[in-house]
């Protein structure tokens, strides 16, 4: 069962989603609706990823459009060994890097500092300024939109490579192997970038939602 | 962060080390002995347990961010791309 979604809705509340394979079959057969459905499914994620490589929305949209064309032209080569999403992202990243001004000025290696500021630990390495509580606050937030905006902003604020890894891994839900393949980075590098990225997002959430003293 | 260096010490882990090992832990990338030491620390340290829970919550929240909907402009541009591709057959 390689399909990312169940072919049949089990609870009956949602209509069954067509599998990617079925949509690919339809668009190959000349069915425009099949193509548009696929675009609706992935275009937003592709655009979001493209935006992390290039300096403007216009360029990102161009990259996404180029990617779809490349996908159509390369359909014959897609063997379904990776998921369609991973394949789309791989093509997109290659295109975005070619177009990407941001890439050329991004730092090659993750910044080296600790993930939690050293001043928060005593000389023995135990917490002296412990993590402030914020999980309950995040989960009970009436203003979910504000929380979403906060997190989006925090991700946008991450350095290039960290942002790419966090987007693919935590936002899009790819596996670490898929992320390494899409970005052409090593497993170890992926983990360091993910570690720093997640740590920074946590600090932003702590600073915004953390209790009392602020 | 150099996880392999942390393995050199056979002493108990301190909080400052634990926070640097959290991702490797969640990725199942620690050696069995480092994993045991980390879990031992967590069992006795509510602060690091809280930190780990916060990282998990951060991941969960990130996973809920939905992408924007397809704009009518992109829809028509891409439909055009598809039609041209079909025509070039």
What does it look like?
The complex is a heterodimer of chains A (214) and B (89). Chain A has 214 residues and is an all-alpha fold. Chain A is built from 10 helices and no strands. In chain A, helix 2 (32-51) packs across helix 4 (84-99). The longest helix of chain A has 23 residues, at 187-209. The radius of gyration of chain A is 20 Å and the shape is elongated. Chain A starts with 19 loop residues before the first helix and ends in a 5-residue tail after the last helix. Chain B is an all-alpha fold. Chain B has 5 helices and no strands. Chain B has helices at 3-6, 15-26, 32-44, 46-62, 72-88. In chain B, helix 2 runs parallel beside helix 4 (46-62). Chain B is elongated, with a radius of gyration of 23 Å. The mean pLDDT of chain B is 90. The chains are: A mainly alpha (214), B mainly alpha (89). The interface between A and B is large, with 55 and 42 residues.
Poorly predicted ranges of chain A: 1-9, 103-107
Number of strands of chain A: 0
Report the order of strands and helices of chain B: HHHHH
Q: What integer value in Å does the Rg of chain A equal?
A: 20 Å
- Number of extended strands of chain B: 0
Name a few traits of the molecule:
heterodimer; A: 214 residues; mainly alpha; 10 helices; elongated; B: 89 residues; 5 helices
Summarize this, please?
The complex is a heterodimer of chains A (214) and B (89). Chain A is mostly helical. Chain A is built from 10 helices and no strands.
Please give the structural blueprint.
The complex is a heterodimer of chains A (214) and B (89).
Chain A: H1 20-28, H2 32-51, H3 57-74, H4 84-99, H5 101-105, H6 135-140, H7 144-156, H8 160-171, H9 176-183, H10 187-209
Helix pairs in contact in A: 1-2, 2-3, 2-4, 3-4, 4-9, 7-10, 8-10
Chain B: H1 3-6, H2 15-26, H3 32-44, H4 46-62, H5 72-88
